[in-house]
């Protein structure tokens, strides 16, 4: 199992995973020549750091409200689902779920509306 496959298994625990992993997906493609660039090394380091320092995910309580944070950039789209729960007798807003994906080349040409 490759590092990228391992990290992909935990993608819902890692914010902006697809954006950070973009250069690693590119070099792992069968069609491309394997070349570890500075960008790829930085992406590897960011994912490695995120895996070892990821926030704990809360178990969703369906009777409480949720907050949805969405974000977009030129390389990807993402969202974080949060919920305020009582942790150690104090209100704590924490993540329940993360999701992200890379922007496809055709989508990169779309204009904002």
Automatic annotation (TrEMBL):
SUPFAM superfamilies: DNA/RNA polymerases (SSF56672). It comes from the Eukaryota. InterPro entries: DNA/RNA_pol_sf, Rev_trsase/Diguanyl_cyclase, RT_RNaseH_2, Viral_Replic_Matur_Polypro. Residues 37-110 form the Reverse transcriptase/retrotransposon-derived protein RNase H-like domain. PANTHER family: POL PROTEIN, RIBONUCLEASE H. This is Reverse transcriptase/retrotransposon-derived protein RNase H-like domain-containing protein.
């Amino acid at each position: 199992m490759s590092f990228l496959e391992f990290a992909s298994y935990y993608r819902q625990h890692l914010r902006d995973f697809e954006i950070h992993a973009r250069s690693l997906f590119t070099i792992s493609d069968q069609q491309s020549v394997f070349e570890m660039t500075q960008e790829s090394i930085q992406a590897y380091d960011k994912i490695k750091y995120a895996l070892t320092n990821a926030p704990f995910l809360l178990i969703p309580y369906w009777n409480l409200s949720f907050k949805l944070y969405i974000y977009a950039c030129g390389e990807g789209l993402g969202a974080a689902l949060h919920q305020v729960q009582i942790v150690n007798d104090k209100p704590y807003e924490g993540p329940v779920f993360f999701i992200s994906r890379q922007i496809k080349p055709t989508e990169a040409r779309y204009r904002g509306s």
